[in-house]
Amino acid sequence: MIIGIESSCDESAMALFDPGKGLRGEWVHSQILKHQAYGGIVPDLASREHLDNFPPLLKEVLAAHRPVAGDLIAVTTGPGLAGCLALGMAVGHALSLASKLPLVGVNHLRGHAFSPFIQLHEKDPDGFSGQFRDCLPHLGLIVSGGNTILFRIDLNGNLEVLANTVDDAAGEALDKGAKLLGMPYPGGPLIEKQAANGNSKAYSFPRAFPQADVPRFSFSGLKTSLRYQLEKMSDADLEAGMADLCASYQAAVVDALQRKTRQFLEAGEFRSLGLSGGVANNQDLREAIQKVGNQQKLPVLIADPAHTGDNAAMIAFAAFADRAGCQEEPSTFDPSWELA
Q1: Is the pLDDT of residue 47 over 80?
Q2: 292 and 311 in a common domain
Q3: Cα(14)–Cα(191) distance, rounded to whole angstroms?
Q4: How confident is the model at residue 33 (pLDDT cuts 50, 70, 90)?
Q5: Which end of the chain has fewer CB atoms at under 10 Å, N or C?
Q6: Residue ranges for the binding site for Fe cation?
Q7: Which reaction is the catalytic activity of this chain (predicted)?
Q8: Which residues are annotated as a binding site?
Q9: Which residues are annotated as part of the binding site for substrate?
Q10: What percent of the chain has pLDDT over 70?
């Protein structure tokens, strides 16, 4: 059994993963309501909440499973907020010392990278290794509040970053756009809700780096374009055009992600396509990436909604599926740890 611990930002989470059977349990304590009043994540508050939340979560885990010889403990050691990572590391080391079980450090982004394969394992734990190999080389897209990354997993399981954002991440652009529109944090899901009733072609917003030979994402110009558009609108215009604004703004984000994914898929040799990260919950994005995969006649693996955000299940699973990418007996953490 692998015990997963995640505390990179504002979610305190633990999970139990059995390589022979799949996920045995997941426990998450969200802090969203605590941070909404501040319009975003407050690092010191998040750290204090982890300090309060992990003891009861640990009791839940130990009630469901008493650690035994052969078990493994996996904890997020970056990237993330320093104070939050420190709290998770403290829990991991304490549990490791008390249970005499080995501890490994997992890169949070690698957890996202492998999270679409959790469902594949759940369907057939015994046959997972063969099915995983059949998916390689794999093109994956991580879309979250802090990261927008296209990456490749080669035949040997090695990860290579193909394209990254040069400024705002896609999720950050959605949240900042929502703030400009007067919506509370987190605003991305609220933009999606409004967009469902809007015309995505009502307003024209820019798509950065549309060229096939530019391996980058950029969303800061999109946010600026929205601000300029709002400066030209009265309060009445904004109220009347809110749904169309949200639909057009969201479409610009989704189109940029879909276009760059298609460019890399067409330029390389891949046997599967994946989508993960918090913004992977956006239905328009899920459908857009599914469409790209269908056009190339490739299987599309999209992380389950429960495993798109900060969760311990993907950390425990990564310790199983990506053991070579883990830190053995980690003694420190890295708030800026990159994917590869």
Answers
A1: yes
A2: no
A3: 30
A4: confident
A5: C
A6: 108, 112, 310
A7: L-threonylcarbamoyladenylate + adenosine(37) in tRNA = N(6)-L-threonylcarbamoyladenosine(37) in tRNA + AMP + H(+)
A8: 108, 112, 142-146, 175, 188, 192, 282, 310
A9: 142-146, 175, 188, 192, 282
A10: 100
